[in-house]
Specification:
The structure holds two protein chains of two kinds.
Chain A lengths: L1 H20 L4 H14 L5 E5 L3 E6 L5 E5 L7 H15 L5 H14 L5 H18 L7 H21 L5 H19 L6 H8 L6 H12 L3 H29 L4
Antiparallel strand pairs in A: 1-2, 2-3
Chain B lengths: L1 H19 L7 H20 L4 H23 L4 H4 L9 H13 L2 H43 L7
Classes of the chains: A mainly alpha, B mainly alpha.
């Protein structure tokens, strides 16, 4: 009996960890964890979910376990995968042990879009948003290219030197430099529009909005944690761009 | 022509941001539609002179309603549709601008941008709160309907 309870807690925490790491809302994580426990026959389960760590206990025993959440990215396919598995368990299609095995496989096996497509997408996000925010058509192609390069830079820096916020700083430094260069070589018109477009795939707009949603839903700790992370990301990007402006001095 | 550009580009930017956040392939088009609806409402309201807060509030509300529709139809969690489709609305640009102005020493413009961030994010979060009210009403209504049709069957 004790073993099955341990397995249950482990399974719930694993599901919660995957969802939290990939950008789910807090209430959805709590709901999924409690539902898995309820489907295993444990009616009274307590889950306490924050953006940086998960706690789960069962009222019927003294067991409680903890899991921490280090990195937070947005990868919605994994949330769909966990959601589907938890539903399959609720419909008794798979057993608890099978659910645990399947959850372990979610991280390595979930499909993602090919890398070149992601880079091109970053460029398209940059250039299309630049246009609908009121930019000029002349800047369309430069924004596309700079957006692609900025995204590439952030990816490589994160892979090679794994220091938080440094990837954003380097990417924005590159974006700023290239934008100033492009304008001084007369292949683009407006530095501001170029930069606003090219930082669009990097800026934490969604994170800021999600933190407000968490706070309004009553999850104060998660909301402030995510908000703080978003502010520091924005700060890394802002400082990167400001560094370029200071170095090249007063180029409009 | 301008309307056409806004329609197609908001669709494109939403779909490509969906690729960056790795949403399932079969949800891409639906997400694009949600994003287009949100941006078109925001843009047209802004054009006829609505304020930042109310335009964002109504746009987020619309995005939420479209997301509810698609999440029911495709049986996927709502978050897939409403995170990428917010990308034209969310205050990422002003957030970075605020920091940049603070660093460059122009505090006044910095605070202006900071206010834009707070108002926009608050309005979007408020819009989604209204959406969850709608979701609850729809749920209750569906439960009632299933009870009427199949009184012995448990509502799912």
């Amino acid at each position: 009996m004790a073993e099955s309870k341990e397995l249950l807690l482990e399974t719930c925490l694993l599901a919660g960890k995957i969802m939290m790491e990939n950008g789910s809302e807090v209430y959805r994580v709590e709901d999924t964890m409690n539902r898995i426990a309820a489907n295993a026959g444990e009616q009274g389960s307590i889950s306490y979910v924050t953006a940086t760590g998960l706690f789960m206990g069962l009222r019927s025993s003294h067991y409680a376990q903890v899991e921490n959440v280090h990195d937070r990215v947005i990868n919605l396919e994994k949330i769909v995968a966990v959601n589907g598995l938890s539903r399959a368990y609720a419909e008794k299609k798979i057993s608890l042990a099978e659910l645990h095995e399947a959850l372990k496989k979610v991280n390595p096996t979930t499909p993602s879009f090919p890398y070149w497509l992601q880079v091109l997408s970053a460029g398209v996000v940059s250039s299309t948003l630049m246009i609908i925010f009121g930019g000029a058509w002349f800047d369309f192609l430069p924004t596309f290219i700079i957006g692609c390069l900025g995204f590439l830079c952030a990816y490589w820096v994160k892979k090679v030197i794994d220091i938080r916020f440094l990837d954003m700083f380097c990417a924005s430094l590159l974006i700023g430099t290239l934008s100033v260069l492009a304008v001084s070589l007369h292949v683009a018109q407006n530095v501001d529009n170029l930069i606003i477009g090219a930082v669009m795939p990097l800026v934490p707009g969604v994170a800021i909005t999600n933190s407000f949603r968490d706070i309004l839903a009553g999850h104060l700790i998660s909301g402030t944690a995510r908000g703080t992370e978003a502010i520091f990301t924005a700060a890394a990007i802002g400082v990167g761009i400001a560094t370029v402006f200071t170095l090249f001095g007063g180029i409009s | 022509m301008t309307i056409f550009i806004h329609l197609s580009f908001s669709f494109l930017s939403t779909v490509t941001f969906g690729i960056l956040t790795n949403i399932p392939k079969r949800a891409l088009v639906a997400t694009g539609i949600a994003g287009t609806v949100g941006w078109m409402i925001y843009w047209s309201l802004k054009t006829i002179g609505y304020g930042l807060g109310s335009a964002n509030f109504l746009a987020a509300f619309a995005v939420g309603c479209v997301s509810i529709f698609f999440s029911r139809r495709k049986k996927m969690p709502m978050i897939i549709f409403n995170i990428p489709s917010l990308v034209p609305l969310v205050p990422g640009g002003p957030a970075y601008k605020a920091v940049r102005e603070f660093v460059l020493g122009d505090n006044f413009v910095g605070f202006e941008n900071l206010m834009i961030v707070v108002i926009t994010a608050g309005a979007i979060a408020g819009g989604f709160m209204m959406t969850s009210v709608v979701e609850k009403i729809v749920n209750r209504w569906q439960v009632k309907r299933t009870k009427k049709r199949h009184p012995d069957k448990k509502a799912s």
